[in-house]
Amino acid sequence: MSGPYSGLRVVDTTGLAGAYATRLLAGMGAEVIRVEPPEGSPIRQLSPFTEAIEPPENSLWWSYLAMGAHSVVIEVEDTDSLTRLLAEADVVFEDQLPGTPNAASELVTPKTIRTRILPFGLTGPKRHWRSSNLVAWAASGILYTTGFADRAPVAPAAPVQLAYHASAASALVGTLLALRSRRLTGVAQDVEISMQEVALSIAPETGVPMFMDDRVHRERSGNRRDLGRPFGLYPCRDGFVSIIVLMPRHWIAMAQWVSEITGNESITEAVFTDNAVRVEALDLIDDWIEELTTLHTRLELFEEGQSRGIPITPVNTIDALVDDPHLRAADFWDSTVLQNGAEVMIPGAPFRSSSAWWSMTPAPRLGEHTDRYLA
Amino acid sequence: MTANQNNLPLDGIRVFELGIAIASPFCGKLMAHFGADVLKIESQTSPDVVRILGSAWLKDREDLAPIASDTSPYVSEMNASKRSVGLELKTPEGKAVAMQLLAECDVFIANFGARALAELGFDYESAAAVNPNIVYVQLPGFGSNEEMPYYPFVAWGPNQAPLVGMDDFTGHADDPPAGIATVAPPDYMSAFHAAIAVITGLEQRDATGKGVHVDISQFETTLALLGPFVMDYDLTGAVHSRIGNRSMWGAPQGVYPCTGHERWIAISATEAQDWEAFSPLLGSSVDADFDDPSVRVSDQDRLDEQIAAWSKEFEAEDLAGRLQAAGIAAHVVSTNEDLLHDTHLTSRHWYQIAESKRLGRDIFTNSPVKLSRSSGRWTGAGPSMGEHTRDVLSEVVGMSSEDIDDLISVGGAFEQIQPEITTSRPWDDWIHLLIPGTEDARDR
User: Fold this and answer.
1) Using an 8 Å Cβ cutoff, are B179 and A233 in contact?
2) Which domains does chain A have, with CATH numbers?
3) Do the interacting molecules here have an ipTM over 0.95?
4) Beta bridge partners of B212
5) pTM to 2 decimals?
């Protein structure tokens, strides 16, 4: 593999927690080795599966997140093999709770950077607590504020596993800083990530500094917020669009549009240019906005609204994203090959670089590289 | 706080940041914490949104109105340890000095819209013309290729999340999408990718002498998280969507009510060994057939109802402790008041405090990235607008005091306004309760 991290050896003993980080490292040329037990990584147990392939090669999560990696099978109790594999590692990713016996981080030499992704960190009263994507959001304040007031709170984009991916991305930032530091000083160091802290760091609105400042107890407000009008999700012919109008010029364009399409003359009255007035009359404003939005599709409203300079976006579903004209034109989508030879569409590189930084190969079969590393 | 200042990975790196709101500023704050000299270039005519937000307690304080731009909690939250340089890029004089400053920087980061950045004359080609080896990382909503359909479109955190599919994935299965207005994944995911790109670019430059241009389209970057769902749609046509708090991979997982008004607990017990630990705690509150994992999945409605009837009898904190003691992932669904009293977070020094020229001192959250030897630094809270203009133009660009005066007088630059006005936040008196080891205001 070529790329900026060509020559770097990374051993990943995590499940979902580190997967997005080592996927990026593999894409940027590192030699990523996934250590798996004989029954396979926990990621291989995650649906959706493809029916055309037998387990343990059928998980699409594995086929995506383990791209570019090598697979080495080691029995859990076989610390000799793990120690041998780790001897030449520049970095090891680990998600074991502190104190776990035979953890990879205890078997490495001092030159290896140990990146640990933990539920609540290495210290503090909750250091032995377990977590999950859902539990991390619960501990961040965001879960409580997401959802409708009369329903149980919900995690943001739960199926996406955002808390894991954001933790992995943070872990990669720390790892790259530690690698730079090792190159400059000759000394390796440890990287520590607490999933709770990552979730908190990307959720400042419900965080303590904001709360101290305004003393406002945050509640769930459904899919609209009373900071402005229109503000939030509005139904349309094929789903929903998101409209956020705060600035006077955005409102004037919005009111003009509604008036042109629905014949509503009241909406263009000057009094409504004041956001506070619109918030006072929010049900009326919402009704008027919906008279426009329900006539059109997401994409029609997005393109027409944006051309009028209004902050409006479609509430996209997976099928809409795959068909999105911008992503098609930008040639964003890529593909990979599954173990049965089938080609399948995947998101492309997460960034575009003027240097050749990104290339990918398919995910490995269970134990495909065991002999190469342990024979 | 500043244990190893002499040995930080980004020591000696100077960053030119054109940031608004979150994406670029959050990346810059990480860089500053790990040693970079991050110069936040600011404008009074088109200020960063955090300069417009102000502060809740300031509303009735007309005497403090002139300094409102320095008081939003987001100023420190997104900009701690940076230096603020007031330069008006739309004036020829300000622009010329900004270009001289850029020539002395190692890194450029910006999350202005690509078109706005190009119109200002800070696209990659313009930057590389004065600094050919610059590590240039931009985070526009839709990429910097002007040929692409959405290039001119308006992107903003709360509107980007629905665009990239996050809102459709949020909510209970039978409800409309709930939306995730209080968190903006595209901003933060692009910020993390920007940090990755900056460090990678610096390593490449050190090795080869060559800079790089990295274009991070927030649209594309966030979609990189949706791989398995895109693949399943391509293979089978299945359109995955919201499923509440449930897991795709086992049961039970959910948010359950506890004793009291709006008290909830989140529990994840999706694996076989989790049920072995959970079942004795539940006892006869759940039906015996749930010992079969396939029944737990196929009849989640009944299981969740029975767990909810059981959980209601417990205080949330108490139940979280009991479940974790049994090895089950669980946590109170924390409100912002709960976070204020979260002793785990305070024991880990999650809230940090540093000097502020305007507010005396200010708090902000720590870095989510922790290194064991290079523990990072917080040299200051968020800067006042233009606080470091004179220092930076003199020290980095080598301008004389008279030249700086001239630049300010023609409107090309500005300094901190009315430095004699200082105040403190209303809660400054009890900050020591939140941050262990902080001076009690009464002892000053």
Assistant:
1) yes
2) 9-203+335-374 (3.40.50.10540), 231-323 (3.30.1540.10)
3) yes
4) B135
5) 0.97
Confidence bin at B5 (pLDDT 50/70/90):
very low
Burial (0-12, 13-18, 19+ Cβ within 10 Å), B248: middle
Q: Which residue of B has its CA nearest to A242?
A: B159
Tell me, yes or no, whether B137 and B39 share the same domain: yes
List CB contacts of A323: < 8 A, sequence separation 6 or more.
Answer: none
Question: DSSP assignment of B92-161, as one string?
Answer: HHHHHHHHHHHHT-SEEEE-S-HHHHHHHT-SHHHHHHH-TT-EEEE--SS-S-TTSTTTT----HHHHH
The number of beta carbons lying within 10 Å of the beta carbon of residue B346 is 17
CA-based torsion, A134, A135, A136, A138: positive or negative:
positive
Q: Which residues contact B223 (CB under 8 A, 6 or more apart)?
A: A321, A327, A332, A347, B164, B165, B230
Taking the Cβ of residue B343 and every Cβ of chain A, the question of whether any pair is shorter than 8 Å is answered with yes
Q: Are strands A334-337 and A312-314 parallel, antiparallel or unpaired?
A: unpaired
Residues 333 through 352 of chain A touching chain B, CB cutoff 8 Å: 333, 342, 344-352
Same domain for B189 and B330, yes or no, is no
Of the residues B311, B340, B369, which one is the last residue of a structural domain?
A: B340
Identity (one letter) of the amino acid at A298?
A: R
Tens digit of each residue's pLDDT (9 = 90 or more) over A288-308: 999 999 999 999 999 999 999
Kindly report the nearest CA distance between residue A219 and chain B, in angstroms.
9
Are B281 and B417 in the same domain? no
A301 touches chain B (CB under 8 A): no
Report whether pLDDT(B276) > 50: yes
The answer to whether residues A321 and B226 touch, using CB atoms and an 8 Å cutoff, is: yes
Nearest by Cα to B51 from B71, B65, B31 = B71
Predicted local distance difference test score (pLDDT) of residue B444: 63
B41 and B169: one domain? yes
- Please indicate, yes or no, whether residues B100 and B212 belong to a single structural domain of this protein: yes
Beta-strand relationship, B370-371 and A190-194: antiparallel
Name the token pair of A113.
């950077």
Determine the structural domain holding residue B273 and report its residue range. 253-340
Residue B392 lies in a domain: yes
3-class SS of residue B200: helix
Instruction: Report CB contact under 8 Å: A318, B264.
Output: no
